[in-house]
């Protein structure tokens, strides 16, 4: 390629310096708008998981059902969040046009990808490296940058609809983009609207997941004692839980097992198998806790992009966005355990009443899975606002500036569906005989106008909406996240002063101010702890938190030599950032990069740097809430020798301080203790060291081929992890002294020295290590008569993924487990001839382990060979498109062409693929060939 044929310089993701994209020093995988359309995906996360580095991202199948509805979290329904390198969504920095985007949750800095407009995207860049020096905190593993289409002139529209082979999971998508250049091309206004909807899929929609068809791996009852020639676990079906039933499991007196079901029959638990039962009247295992296979999501997005070039020295731009996401899902059914029922309750079956009388029991207790109440659910309405006002321009022939102010806000309304209020629920259960043979609530006798309607917990029940309305609530909580960013930078080169043999030294420097705040306002019943049992937490208090940070940054690119023998290019670079946080003080991040191309066809590149992640608002300011933990005290005679050399002395000192001069006995430990959970204002930033090394091939003898292979290695220390209550005490007494933060997290009773309280908080106690190889091959082959062929292969090899939860804990090897396959690839060939285009895509990863390495090492016969690993992923997608004159185009396709199903031995229903099944879609577009 001649010099005048070189592509123009651009600002590549991972740098503020303009350069050709093939001179990017960090590993970069880009996907453009055409690839997104050809995939048939209207959900961006479903497309991006094709990139091996993002394989474990949270898509809709992991944002519904029991994954989203639990008493431990709020506002999770329908969230789509990227997880780069399996180190967590909170360590993945998501940008739009190289700028930050407001978060989607009050407790997390991660962005909801539902707020990104699909059809307004020009390309998506996925980059690995220590980019904190460029973009600030959170980019510990790298960055995902969505680059939007600019200066659009014309009208473009697209519509698509699809449905699964089961007739459900339907999707609808529509977008309109209208743009206009004016003032001889110096100005542009573009307005875009986008709508999409994904239908909710309930668990029961897949017959192969229902009772009678679903099987689980459980301990083999025929392998007692252990026979090395017999599998320890087998696949078994018709499984039921223990001593709980939709009919009710009735305990008469103080017995440990139920005597009757709710119909008054002797309780039939079935045949025991491991920790389950087969047959009987207990609750079916499949689907009870899991709930929906996918949530229902409806999105509306409006984007305005505008710019006007006053002169070379001043270009003004203003971007605005409104995104609305409405998501609903249902999780587990509500449970009732060991609740008393008075014998004068008229709903008690006569056989049970007689048995209680014969046993001299004063009352009954019952367990019940309340399937007739409906599943617990959540609806999240998330509204995102974002505006960016920017000024850019040329200061001289060798320098430009870029300044902007950005404001983002997310408003979240969280509606919990079907949660029981404790007091009215207990009132409805406490039924007595009323006037004229009626059945009324006992509370109605003293408060006739209270509206209580009695319910019958005996039998499967047919609880009416009116009865449920007395004690079920669809209460609303609210959250708001605000983000302010002001940034200014100057970029250019020193060419007016001097040049190196490789060209002028390039630079960029500037400063940035950012303020983030969030608040969570739980409903009054949450604050009062008024809900029943496991439906909601005991108490949730309002939370507030904010921080700001002042930053200064700089970057250099030094082209030492260019276009010399055996030195087509040799350049080195450096970047650094100093940050001052209002919460954690100062941090420094830096990166060094280098590129060496001995000839134009081959380039070697590498980077080494330090990145940080500052604690987010949730980790710092999480409000105080109730918690429970089972604590096995290490200061007993049994456990005193199971720790470090410091344990015994520390235990004796701590017990003495509580007034006890002997070690604890067995009667002093093994209790469930009440405690609290809260944020930690003493957290420090996480720190990561990252290095990459790679090769880029652009062989002249094979025009159209570009290939790259890059090794990455990330070590993350001081990672924030919430230490469980049972680990706090071990960490305290196993340190060199008792002067450590873990000892301040629990208390002992004076005299007995028993633990009587604890506080669980996030701590800088964990560490991660990951390493692997990324492969990126693209080949464009035009022919004279056979059309144009394009081939894209993205591959990944994961060499290491380890996690240490707390100091002294054994390393957990997560390599080759669910979400972290060792080998991962996406192959996308396409063929275009005239107006016809055929696009095929194969997404594959290897069969991952079903058991940990420790489990299989200790028990080689843990399961039959076919169950030691889950099925590999083989997802085949096909699309055919036809472009007609005047800018019209039609297309149709199938995803999961071969209808691969989830592994029948996996507990999770989306391993290795979602249960959506074979999916058909058709679409039409107009004017998409314009800019």
Helix-strand layout with pairing:
Layout: E1 10-11, E2 18-19, E3 28-32, H1 33-39, H2 44-48, E4 93-96, E5 99-100, E6 121-128, H3 132-135, E7 142-148, E8 154-164, E9 171-182, E10 187-198, E11 215-219, E12 233-237, E13 239-240, E14 249-252, E15 260-261, E16 271-273, E17 276-278, E18 296-311, E19 314-330, E20 335-342, H4 350-359, E21 363-369, E22 377-396, E23 399-417, E24 419-420, H5 422-429, E25 431-433, E26 439-441, H6 442-446, H7 465-471, E27 472-473, E28 476-493, E29 506-521, H8 524-528, E30 543-564, E31 567-581, E32 585-599, E33 602-613, H9 617-621, E34 625-631, H10 647-657, E35 671-677, E36 686-697, E37 705-722, H11 725-733, E38 746-748, E39 755-760, E40 762-782, E41 788-804, E42 812-813, E43 823-833, E44 836-845, H12 853-858, E45 873-883, E46 888-895, E47 919-926
Parallel strand pairs: 4-7, 35-39
Antiparallel strand pairs: 1-2, 3-6, 4-5, 6-7, 8-9, 8-47, 9-10, 10-18, 11-12, 13-17, 14-15, 14-21, 16-17, 18-19, 19-22, 20-21, 22-23, 23-28, 24-27, 25-26, 28-29, 29-30, 30-31, 31-32, 32-33, 33-36, 34-35, 36-37, 37-40, 38-39, 40-41, 41-42, 41-43, 43-44, 44-45, 45-46, 46-47
What can you see in these coordinates?
By secondary structure, this protein is mostly beta strands. 9% of the residues lie in helices and 46% in strands. It contains twelve helices and 47 strands. It has a 22-stranded antiparallel beta barrel. A hairpin with a 5-residue loop joins strand 40 and strand 41. The longest helix is centred in the C-terminal third of the chain and has 11 residues. The two termini are 26 Å apart.
